Amino acid sequence: MLEVRKLAKSYRNGAQATPAIKELSFEVHERELICIVGPSGCGKTTLLKCVSGLLPASSGEVLLDGRPVTAPPEQMALVFQEYGRSLFPWMRVDQNVRFPLRRKRLPRRETDRLVAESLAAVGLFEFARHYPWQLSGGMQQRVAIARALAYQPQILVMDEPFASVDAQTRAELEDLLLGVWQRYPVTILFVTHDIDEAVYLGDRILVLTARPTVLAELVEVDLPRPRDQVETKALTEFAQLRARVYRAIRRD
Amino acid sequence: MRRARELGLQLVVPVVVLLAWGLWSARADNFFFPPLTDILASFRANWVFERVPTDVVPSLERMLAGYALAVVGGVALGVLIGSFRPVRWAADPPIEFLRAIPPPVLIPFAILAFGVGPQFKVFVIAIGCVWPVLLNTVDGVRGIDATLRDTARVYRIGALSRLFSVVLPAASPRIFAGMRTALSLALILMVISEMEASTNGIGFFVLQSQRSFAIPDMWSGILLLGLLGFVLNAGFVELERRLLRWHRAAQASALEAAA
Amino acid sequence: MLGRLAAGATGVVAPLLALELLARSEVLPQREVPPPSVWLQVLVQQLPAPAFWADVGSTLEGWAIGLTLAALIAVPAGILIGSSRLGYQMLRAPIEFLRPIPSVALIPLAVLVFGTRLQNKVFLVTFACLWPLLFQAIYGVQDVDPVAVDTARAFGFGRPARLLRVVLPSAAPYLATGLRIASSVALILAVTSELVVGVPGLGRSINVAASSGDYALMYALIAVAGLLGLALNAAFGRLEGWLLRWHPAQRAEAPA
Asked: CA A76, CA B120: separation in Å to the nearest integer?
């Protein structure tokens, strides 16, 4: 469904060009949950920006359903790390969730239904008329997820979405995501720096190197689903996979 | 108990000053500074509400017309300039020069262009007040969080929707700051333009009173202008407080989260 | 970088060219709106004229004296008020009340008391500039880092030394901002008193030029007023920028 072919991105600084991504090629299949990990500063965010059409690539291409991505595609939704800065503070929670749907010109009843369902899916139905700044960090991120869900994307791209919340909230949000992913037919591209999280969530893990970034390793995660915070993490395979990813990152 | 004390403290100085002025002016028989009681009597005779339709209303009409033009024009241009870098680069030098021209200096030109009537006053007010609004709008538009912008792009929000539902609300705190400055400037320019060439208006009245040596009348006009300035400013601050409640709350909670 | 300069130059040249064309082709009446080439010429012709420089000097004189007086009164007052919680509480309401009073309302009073002499201009400029300087001084003092003050006190610095070495440097950027604002207010009031009252200076000459039909001179002098304002803004803006740059709040922390 999503294909990244020989993607490269350099930043120009006057006469100099700093290569962020040297070359990346990979495929994401439908309904997969792919995790991308790498050391700090390895260009994960750059990769996401290129994949989502926010930034043009220096060379190579990104194809979504066979068509090149030059601008943010219709079927894609993005959840940012800084939830506080991605929700509009002058709008209520339900207005925030509803906002991207305006373009779709659906009948009012349909939009209402989508908004209500997605808020319920993230457990925030009672907070629909609150303002984002009245909610905790974890709740705000859930609103951002609800907004992405209501949009009914085919592919959901998430940029370290749980990095700014505490560990317990993170565990809750991970499980929330898995639940949502089971219910809705969506492909997920999930970027994180947390190796445990990547192994816990993913079907496959793309391990990136430091700059200039290339693919260090592709790790298949065939831990049983549904995953559980206690049981899955107690499995020996979990520890083995985790070690493998860790070594792949440390290798260079 | 504490609130009463705070209120009391705040009233001490004004009360003392008024008493002192009242006593001194009653005693002092100074031509330029008539007794406070005379001034108050004159205030009552003129502005409650004898001259309101003849002077206050025309003054306020012109001021608000000029102000409205400045706000609409300033915001529109500010959004344009703030959104496109080449436009900003081109507009920067002429704007720096134009806004440095002290607005009163344009009055002779305005009279030349519009004749001696309400139009030239509206023009002077508008041209003077547009700069704080415009510059603050540009800053507000430029300062919109990158994540907010990216969010709008990712969800493919249309240009018009982006303008009214994202750009303007996000920039509104800065825009309001500019509008507040422009409001006090509007009052000043209204008075100046009326003093220069007018047949009615509060500024005109004050100057006329001075020329015909009706000193208590002059002071009553000054007092009215002071009151107007205070009321307009207080009213605006209250309006801003209500409309921008979301902004203060969001900032407060962001500060808490960072702490 | 070059693109930026080019864009900026276009921004200045294009409107002037447009005006030139519109005036010469009589779309705009040539008598009332002479083409820029005409009044630019008049501007240049003013440069050797002593009367011109007398005007500029007169305007600047009122500007300078008024601004200085205002600073001399407002800055110490602001520091005092800002440092004393009691003082601030007592005086806050009255100064917030006096602040929005348009200083131009006092023009007739100034005429009464001072006539059309320099003092008239100075009085108006001083009164108008008091407020921005006062408020900026208060904010500046209130914004001083309490830890810095306590540190100084712990090291045995007395009140005057703390004022000089901690409070004033910390409040300096605010004062610079106040000066920048007050400078443009001062110019406006100086010119206003010349225009409305007839005190000698640029404002009066602009009025005279307009009423005697010498419109080219009028535009030329308006442009001079703008250039004067521009120069003053630039100078005080520089000062403000320089002071802001070393202010601790502005300095970015080096990553640990």
From this structure: 55
